[in-house]
Amino acid sequence: MMIQRESQDAERMEELILAAVGEIFRDQDLSPFLDWARGAIPKFLEVDENELTPDEVNRLGALLGIAIWNATPLPKYGYQLRPVPTPATDQPCLCGSGRPFGECCAQAGELPEMPADLVWELLLDELDDQALASALNHNAIPGHLLARVAERWLEDERPGRAAHLLEPLFDQDLAQLDARYEDALDMLCDAYEVLEFRNKRQNFLHRVTQAGGRELQAAAWQRLSTTYIDAGQFDQAHAAFEQALRHAPDSPANALLEITLLAAQHRDDLARERARFWRGKLRRTGLGAARTLEFLTHAISDPQDALAATHAEAMDPRLVILRDWIEAHHRRPLPAYSFERLRGDPIILFDEQLALFPEQELPLPPGTVPNAPAAILTTPLLLKRSERAWHRSFTASKPFATQLSSLDDGDIWESNGWLNFLNHRPQAIDSLDILDDLATAIEEHPESRLPWIRTRLLRPLLHRAQGILERSLSTQGPHQLPWSVPGNRPLLRLLFRFYRLRVEEGAAAAAGALLEQLLQLNPDDDHGIRAELMNHYLRQHENEKAVALARRFPTDVRAELAYGEVLALYRLGQTERAAAVLHDAFGRLPRVPRYLMRKRIKRPPPGENRVIPGSDDQAWLYREAMRDLWVSEPGLLAWMKKLTA
Q1: Element holding 339 (H helix, E strand)
Q2: Where are the alpha helices (DSSP H) in 347-458?
Q3: Do 488 and 337 contact (CB within 8 A), yes or no?
Q4: Higher model confidence: residue 367 or residue 314?
Q5: pLDDT per residue as tens digits for the range 384-435
Q6: Does residue 573 sit in the same domain as residue 443?
Q7: How far apart are CA 291 and CA 597, in angstroms?
Q8: Among 417, 418, 424, 434, which Cα is nearest to 335's?
Q9: How far apart are CA 132 and CA 144, in angstroms?
Q10: Into how many domains does the chain fold?
Q11: Confidence check: pLDDT of 368 > 70
């Protein structure tokens, strides 16, 4: 209640100042303004005239009016201040009492003062473009408040102008810039981001971390950490956060940053613990604003939802609409899909004729169900009607082939028609086809990498898609869903997206289970799931499963399969078999060992379109993904060097 009252008082004072400044600008003459102030200001403040004498009411209006006048930049003087000089003791008092100043207001001490920055902060939102240009031409606006002008220009889609305005601020001695310039730093980074000057932004921030004052250094480290979070570079983000914490250990901004960093890594339990720590610390120090403490209280119960709520005002309104629709409907009962068997030749799971060791019986791949019939997962009739109507509203194309991006480059977010469709049809969330389009739209939104968007929007859709499949399998038994059948693609694409999200979340076991499920559903493996699955098995030390997977695809030209089997067999102590497999892999992909064995090696120029089997590109990418496992296995690289010399 106290916080609300303080907020209302602050808003009322801002209204008073703006009304007074408007009156000052009318004539820019002190005398008529003071006449106005004596009568208007007490009424504005709702002064009880029964508690004050008429002289006291006049004095209140005049003195507060003088304080506002002294802090107001005057356009006809180049937006400079023209403060009222303090009268001599024998001069008439400014309050209008008619008595000498020495016998009147001088008795109350010094005249009240108001910071000019306070007036400028309010005035910058009111000046039109011509007046703003005049104030800038006269260099009248305080340097640290140029951030407000830059913010206005960014909203007007003039990032170049905003950057040009702010860059000179940071060409001076950075150590002289205090915490007031943090907003300018943020606005300049925002301008660089819109202009796609990423290197320039990073170089600027690193320069501030080296030469700025302690407070500005902390702000630069905070911004760097946020940049790394957006890029998914969490080690660098954590290192930058530690630097921000070192430079400003009590900064409330670091509280929000740490919760964001932990939530982005889906470390929600630790985020709750740290939110509880920060709330206690900021309460003790008195540095926490009410809004910050409210956020931390929310984060203690649900970090992801707290972040979503915090950024809701800045979030694309269409994302907010979609979030609300998903939250309202994603727990609906799961619909009943059915399997329609396909006619034609059965799908071959693996070919024993291609095995390196034909005398040995090949194990079934993990999770494979023998003789599972090939089918199409068919949509309930009523949903098909909704899907036809949906595609009249949602006009973006499906991703091409096994890609995940639409061909429309995000244009779908320029229209509200499909959102209106959803708001009138809660049953749309039962359609795999519609879920597929929504997942594509979310991933193509410019803000899609924000963790709370992925958690609150994308995850419920993907989880529901898997639930629809599981219900169908539980009632109708195992089936294969070949990618070659277009009707199966929405589900398979959704499951593949779910796998990638689970990897982001660090849920290795769940990610591996999704890969196994995808390979069981679509044994032809159009997405190259087997390479991802092989690396997963090896990182989880599931070596027997890795060998079984490699046996399923014995002539695969992916380095993951060919060399992954070598690593798995070596770990299992089957060095003779490992040597034979290595011989075959080296014959097909001879460049991989060199890239694995060298401590340092220059990255080859990337290929134009795709990675070619046997190329340096392929060997480099495998090194980047898996060399740490090869290095950690005692004697493995020396053994490989001997056999491939």
Answers
A1: strand 338-341
A2: 381-393, 417-423, 432-444, 451-453
A3: no
A4: 314
A5: 999 999 999 998 888 887 888 876 655 788 888 899 999 999 999 999 999 9
A6: no
A7: 54
A8: 434
A9: 16
A10: 3
A11: no
pLDDT of residue 353: 29
Q: Structure pTM?
A: 0.69
Helix axes 303-310, 290-301, angle to 10 degrees: 140
pLDDT at position 351 is: 34
Task: Judge whether 479 lies within some domain.
Answer: yes
Residue 360 has pLDDT above 50, yes or no: no
pLDDT tens-digit profile of 243-289?
A: 999 999 999 999 999 999 998 888 889 999 999 999 999 999 888 88
Q: Is 107 helix (H, G, I), strand (E, B) or coil?
A: helix
User: In this predicted model, what pLDDT tens digit does every residue of 567-578 receive, in sequence order?
Assistant: 999 999 999 999
Taking Cα atoms as reference points, which of 132, 144, 125, 110 lies closest to residue 18? 125
pLDDT band at 348 (very low <50, low <70, confident <90, very high): very low
Which amino acid is located at 471 in the chain? R
| 385 plus 435 within the same structural domain | yes
Q: Which of 418, 630, 428 is nearest to 538 (CA)?
A: 630
| Mean pLDDT, residues 343-371 taken together | 43
User: In this structure, what token pair is assigned to residue 567?
Assistant: 């690593």
Tell me: the pLDDT tens digits for 579-590? 999 999 999 999
Residue 369's pLDDT band (boundaries 50, 70, 90)?
Answer: low
C-alpha span between 291 and 313 (Å, rounded): 14
| Rounded-to-integer distance, Cα 155 and Cα 355, Å | 63
Cα–Cα dist 550/362, whole Å = 10
Own/partner pairs for 172-178, CB < 8 Å, 24+ apart? Answer: 174/207, 174/208, 174/211, 174/212, 174/213, 174/216, 175/211, 175/212, 175/213, 176/213, 177/212, 177/213, 177/216, 178/213, 178/215, 178/216
With vertex at residue 527, the alpha carbon angle to CA 523 and CA 528, rounded to the nearest 5 degrees, is 80
**Domain-located, residue 204:** no
Q: How much is the average pLDDT of 524-537?
A: 92
Residue 365 or 249, more confident: 249
Q: Which domain range does residue 446 map to?
A: 339-527
Domain limit, last residue, from 464, 495, 527: 527
* Total number of residues shown for the chain: 645
Which pLDDT does position 363 carry in this prediction?
A: 43
The token pair at 556 is 């695969």
- DSSP letter assigned to residue 103: G
pLDDT at position 334:
95
Is the Cβ–Cβ distance between 256 and 223 less than 8 Å? no
- Between CA 465 and CA 499 the distance in angstroms is 12
* Percent of the chain at pLDDT exceeding 70: 91
612 SS3 class: coil
- Can you read off the two tokens belonging to residue 333? 């009962």
Report the C-alpha gap between 231 and 224 in whole angstroms.
11
User: Which tokens sit at 367?
Assistant: 């999770």
Please, what is the angle between helix 252-264 and helix 290-301, to 10°?
30
The helix/strand count (H/E) of the chain reads as 30, 2
What does the alpha-carbon distance between residue 248 and residue 178 come to, in Å, rounded to a whole number?
Answer: 13
Identify whether residues 504 and 555 lie together within a single domain. no
Chain-centre distance of CA 147, in angstroms? Answer: 23
**Letter for the amino acid at 238?**
H
Report the SS3 class of residue 376.
Answer: strand
Whether residue 583 sits in one domain with residue 482: no
* 81's tokens: 């201040």
Q: Cβ neighbours of residue 447 under 8 Å, at least 6 residues apart?
A: 315, 316, 319, 453
